[in-house]
Design goal:
Number of helices: 4
Distance between the termini: 26 Å
Number of strands: 0
Shape: globular
């Protein structure tokens, strides 16, 4: 498992040519996948622990 610093550096490198919103999306997906150890969208959304309803995270 990657550390937070390693994942941040990887995401920055991966997203350098993307728009800011798309880069943020990719970064959050990577963090969610790592945190949840799953690729199911609902589990990724739960792992992000956002202050909005899960359905809103999933739609985004």
């Amino acid at each position: 498992m990657l550390s937070t610093d390693q994942l941040t550096k990887f995401a920055a490198e991966l997203c350098r040519d993307l728009s800011k919103p798309l880069g943020k999306f990719v970064t959050q997906m990577l963090f969610g996948i790592q945190a949840s150890q799953d690729v199911k969208l609902s589990n990724i959304g739960r792992a992000l622990e956002e202050a909005i309803p899960l359905i809103r995270t999933e739609k985004r």
